[in-house]
């Protein structure tokens, strides 16, 4: 009798876990896309711009691909201007920001969830489904990590300190906050009511 009861509840638990895993797997891709896009947006927006060269050099690399530490020396030409223009004070940052966002397919007006066409292409479509036994599940991410980085570092001395650690614009802090907000947003979506895999899939299709 006890064995029959345990077997019945095991099957119920297995069903529950399969549904739970399918929802979490769906969000694994969404989390990578949204967290990376938000981190990149925060980095570009919060980097102090004089010419804009430091902000222009922010990059995204998925799964170790496209990872380059070569600094783009572009200067004195659009969207990067001349040194010491103090664009962060005059409001002339938009040209660099827009070009950086366009490079990675960032949706400027979509803050939650943040989106990057470049990251989605490499991570995979969050709503892409497969058959998992009798249940519909979601494929895991195509890559395990995505890097947001800038080749302009400590070797640049005062320039990098000014660009990334300007008072009120600490880039690392803003990146961390942006990632936290995106993960929290997706977690709230996952927790709303009793989300089924079908509901999660509908949400993902509408957002990504």
| N-to-C order of helices and strands | HHEHHHEEEHHH
- Beta strand %: 5-15%
Largest sheet: 2 strands, antiparallel
- Strand order of the biggest β-sheet: 1-4
Can you tell me the residue ranges where pLDDT is under 50 for at least 5 consecutive residues? Answer: 131-138
DSSP strand count: 4
Structural class: mainly alpha
Count of domains: 1
> Radius of gyration over alpha carbons?
21 Å
Helix content: 40-55%
Give the CA-CA distance, first to last residue: 48 Å
Write down the overall geometry. Answer: elongated
- Arithmetic mean of pLDDT: 83
Instruction: Please give the count of helices.
Output: 8
Key terms:
mainly alpha; 208 residues; single chain; 8 helices; 4 strands; 52% helix; elongated; two-stranded antiparallel sheet
Summarize the structure.
The protein has 208 residues and is mainly alpha-helical. The protein has one domain (25-49, 60-71, 97-207). It is 52% helix and 8% strand.
Tell me about this structure.
With 208 residues, the protein is mainly alpha-helical. The chain has one domain. It is built from 8 helices and 4 strands; from the N terminus they run H-H-E-H-H-H-E-E-E-H-H-H. A hairpin with a 2-residue loop joins strand 2 (129-132) and strand 3 (135-138).
Secondary structure: elements and pairs:
Layout: H1 2-46, H2 53-56, E1 59-62, H3 87-90, H4 94-103, H5 117-123, E2 129-132, E3 135-138, E4 146-149, H6 158-164, H7 171-191, H8 197-207
Antiparallel strand pairs: 1-4, 2-3
């Amino acid at each position: 009798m006890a064995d029959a009861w345990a077997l019945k509840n095991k099957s119920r638990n297995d069903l529950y876990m399969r549904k739970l895993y399918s929802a979490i797997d769906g969000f694994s891709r969404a989390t990578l896309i949204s967290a990376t896009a938000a981190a990149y947006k925060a980095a570009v927006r919060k980097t102090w711009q004089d010419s804009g060269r430091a902000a222009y050099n922010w990059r995204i690399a998925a799964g170790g691909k496209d990872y380059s530490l070569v600094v783009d020396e572009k200067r004195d030409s659009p969207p990067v201007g001349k040194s010491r223009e103090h664009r962060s004070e005059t409001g002339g940052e938009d040209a660099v920001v827009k070009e950086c966002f366009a490079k990675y397919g960032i949706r400027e007006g979509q803050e939650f969830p943040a989106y990057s066409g470049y990251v989605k292409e490499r991570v995979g479509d969050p709503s892409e489904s497969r058959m998992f036994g009798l249940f519909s599940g979601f494929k895991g991410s195509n890559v395990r990590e995505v890097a947001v980085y800038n080749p302009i570092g400590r070797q640049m001395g005062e320039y990098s300190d000014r660009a990334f650690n300007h008072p009120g614009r600490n880039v690392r802090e803003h990146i961390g906050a942006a990632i936290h907000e995106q993960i929290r947003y997706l977690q709230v979506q996952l927790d709303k009511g009793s989300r089924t895999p079908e509901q999660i899939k509908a949400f993902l299709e509408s957002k990504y």
